[in-house]
Amino acid sequence: MAYNPAIAKLQMPARIARLPVDERGYPVPKFVATIDGKPDFRLAKSGWVNRCITGRLCWQCGEPIGRHLAFVIGPMCAINRVSSEPPSHLDCAQFAVKACPFLTQPKRPRNPHGLPEDKFGPGGVMIPRNPGVTLIWVTKRYRLFRSEHGNAGTLIHIGEPEALYWYSHGREATHDEIMASIDSGLPALREVAEMQGPDAIAALDAEIARGLALVPP
Question: Which helix (H) or strand (E) covers residue 69, if one does?
Fold first, then answer.
């Protein structure tokens, strides 16, 4: 099947090119669940998180990953350095932020229509919005921990960054776009911290200061 015109001219990693293609002409990442015989990009297949972690596999293409780990996250995850999704190859991550309609269209909302009633969300507390900006955070290490708030499950604390790539609309994000996304997402983080008490608020303030230092001028 031919690729969708929206992505046909993008540089596609060979590992992504080996993936099946859906009826719209988009490669189907390995993490995508199948519902009623069709891939549903909103859902991750059962057990895939654990397979990626234990087998050290790329979240996107499913092939072995090397020392450099690229996490595709939103600006709020850059504040608390937490992700519910394992890392990808850098080139797989770069393709995703340029090809995924949700990531390239900041005004595109999440679509809850038709999701299975028994679906389980990722661990922790998810902010149900399109952040408008995506960050590829490249690191060499991470550690796992169990969620204490929101949905039960395993979460990932991301290690110190080796490189940061900010995207919006499928291209490099501007400083103002990044700050607008951060400013609009912080109230949700503060709400969670306020429920946890003064220590959590103080910890969040420290995380915000640390995160803002990563924003390019």
Answer: strand 69-73
Torsion angle of C-alpha atoms 80, 84, 87, 92, degrees rounded to 10:
-110
pLDDT, tens digit (0-9, with 9 covering 90-100), for 162-191: 999 999 999 999 999 999 999 999 999 999
pLDDT (tens digit, 9 = 90+) per residue, 70-101? 999 999 999 999 999 999 999 999 999 999 99
pLDDT for residue 6: 94
DSSP state at residue 146: E
Output the pTM of the full model. Answer: 0.89
Name residue 73's beta-bridge partners.
135
With a CB cutoff of 8 Å and minimum separation 6, the contacts of 209 are none
Contacts of 172 (CB under 8 A, 6+ apart): 165, 166
Q: Are 167 and 177 in contact (CB under 8 A)?
A: no
Pair 34, 56: CB distance under 8 Å: no
Q: Report domain extents, the chain.
A: 67-212
What is the 8-class DSSP label of residue 9?
T
SS3 33: strand
User: Who's near 125: CB < 8 A, 6+ residues apart?
Assistant: 149, 150, 151, 192
Looking at the DSSP assignment, which residues form a beta bridge with residue 156? 83, 144
